[in-house]
Amino acid sequence: MRSAAFARKRRGMTDSSNFDIIVLGAGAAGMMCAARAGQRGARVLLVDHNERPGRKILISGGGRCNFTNLHTAPDRFISANPHFAKSALSRYTPQDFLALVDRYGIAWHEKTLGQLFCDGSAVQIVDMLMAECDAGCVTRAFGRSVESVRHEGGQFALTVGGRRASAAKLVIASGGLSIPKLGATGLAYELARQFMLKVVEPRPALVPLTLGGDEVLFRDLSGVSSEVVAAAGKARFREAALFTHRGLSGPAILQASSYWRNGEAVTVDFLPDDDHELFVAEKRARPKVHFATALRGMLPERLAGTLASRLALEGELANLPDKRLRGAAQRLKHWAFTPNGSEGFAKAEVTVGGIATAGLSSKTMEAKTVPGLYAIGEAVDVTGWLGGYNFQWAWASGVAAGEAA
Ligand code: FDA
């Protein structure tokens, strides 16, 4: 490996090229990794079949890129091994990424819940990462497909867009399966299997859920949103839920979807600030008020109407027994939807599951059984909550591999 001080120019890929490191995927993790490794002096080839790098960054955060979260902590990530992400996340923090953003003079703001966004455009983040790659003299091979990968004599030999390239180190940074139209493929899992690494079943996550059967009527509420606590398994999220023409969405539901399994219920608390005595207290205060009217004072009008008719409580509160009112509050605080599916990888913001962490070093992201092979970012079985956590994992794992490879 040459010294970083060695004057180099960014090289184009020739018919056959030898590098120190080949990074597969010019997304968030791959660009960060390539830049770090290049600036350390490694000769790096960064490959992507898209002509343009970082397509997910460009559309993220409504075009403003929610690039990190100040509350990043290992418990905000889903993985078969909840401890795996700790090392990389502690060595490259949101403040480290913020320092980089500040160095490039990119203006940003905190929106809510520690989520940091660009004031301007997500293009600034991609430009910054490409400038960092240029500072490391990283060679780009964009708009080129990976045709084959072989490992022989300690070298990874690849055919990329009809040309050969080799390196002693190969970094899998090709992401998960979410949003194929932006370039997502199963390359990471194919390579994992080729190199005998286990893969935790990939599932769509941060994804809208669909309703069918009797619950199909809730689709009539399309466009209605309300603050709720949505729960799947042991995970609970207090944010907005949104009814859609296919079922349920909004941040609370997207978060819960990452923990949801087919056939299970998602429980929604429509009255997160109230207890089971709510309607009994209302009855004492306003006995002449009808149940549906009382509910309309607490929830969006159309939602209140649908829920009231499902609860089949009619008439003035004064005429409804306390037991039934407590029962209604209980149902509204534990409303169980049983989604018949999700909107799938076409709409999922991320993929939960991926290359099993048991086969990787948490310090370097290197495969324990294949020296020189690394996996980073969403390709790995580490998935963050909504709100900038997934990019923070991409940066942190990218830096870990970029410094070690
Ligand atoms: P990423 O998917 O970014 O990059 C993988 C790269 O590999 C791609 O460039 C792809 O083209 C390339 N590739 C795949 N297969 C290939 C093949 N066979 N050959 C060559 N190249 C191949 N997160 C967050 O923290 N804040 C946010 O605001 C958002 N917002 C958001 C919005 C939307 C609509 C989506 C879909 C996702 C988000 N995310 C997010 C999630 C975030 O975008 C995601 O977790 C990271 O981009 C993952 O980074 P990676 O580099 O691991 O994969």
Compact overview of the structure:
The protein has about 400 residues and is of the alpha+beta class.
Describe the structure.
This protein has 405 residues and is α+β, with helices and mostly antiparallel strands. Helix content is 28%, strand content 25%. It has 12 helices and 21 strands. The protein has helices at 28-39, 55-59, 86-91, 94-103, 123-135, 187-194, 251-257, 278-285, 291-296, 301-311, 322-333, 389-404, and strands spanning 16-24, 44-48, 66-69, 77-78, 108-110, 115-118, 139-142, 146-152, 155-160, 163-172, 199-205, 209-210, 225-232, 235-243, 247-249, 266-269, 335-337, 341-342, 350-355, 373-375, 383-384. The strands form 5 sheets. Strands 1, 2, 7, 8, 9, 10 and 20 form a 7-stranded mixed beta sheet that branches. The protein has a 7-stranded antiparallel beta sheet with strand order 17-16-13-14-15-12-18. The chain has a 3-stranded antiparallel beta sheet with strand order 3-6-5. Helix 1 (28-39) links the parallel strand 1 and strand 2 (44-48). The model is unreliable at 1-9 (pLDDT under 50). It binds dihydroflavine-adenine dinucleotide. Dihydroflavine-adenine dinucleotide (FDA) is lined by residues 25-30, 47-50, 55-56, 59-61, 65-66, 145-146, 173-175, 178-179, 183-185, 187, 349-350, 377-379, 388-391, 394.
